[in-house]
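New to this. Explain these tokens.
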Amino acid sequence: MTDKVTTAMVLAAGLGTRMRPLTDTMPKPLVPLCGKPLIDHVLDRLAAGGIERAVVNVHHFADQVEGHLKGRKKPAITISDERGELLDTGGGVVKALPLLGKAPFVIHNSDSAWIDGIGSNIARLATAFDAKRMDSLLLLALGATSIGYDGHGDFLMSQDGALERRGERRESPFAFTGVSIAHPRLFEDAPKGRFSLNVLWDRAIARGRLFGLRLDGVWMHVGTPQSVQDAEQWIARAASA
């Protein structure tokens, strides 16, 4: 790692349609998991991993998110306002770039949660990021042991961590957790307006500069009401074991 990673982008602007009816009256980041809003799980995890400042984008029920975060000190919060236009993951980060600085930064979805193994996965990700070789480093989990994930995997990972798409006819054991580290160069010549981070990851794959790191612990994708219940049940069982 050539630059210390102390800043994060938390993606909290989505409509949360798969989380309905819970998101009919609140934004997905404020949906509680074990009595604590999802975004607080995220921000507490980031702070424990050495992140000092988080830029949070807002759109759906933006006032609720801003009100909830007001006064939070660790990490310090800066709001990226997307009330006028929802920009998706890539466009949201591009809009926030002036707030994120010139060093590599974490990108963290608001619906990603996990139980850490030994130590902080955020700190492991920051330590593993090598700006000389990487434009982005994605945190990946084993889909078979994850909670709330029923896909066929997202990426194939070589022994040195380099990633490629699994393709429609292939399967991969690795699912993307919604957490990564990006160097600002990943966004050079990025599309304008609304677009997905996948566009930039494909460019990085073509250059051999997209890498992955396996999560140590159990990942929980809490994107639906049922997956919230499943995650809470698993956490309760783990706590009593």
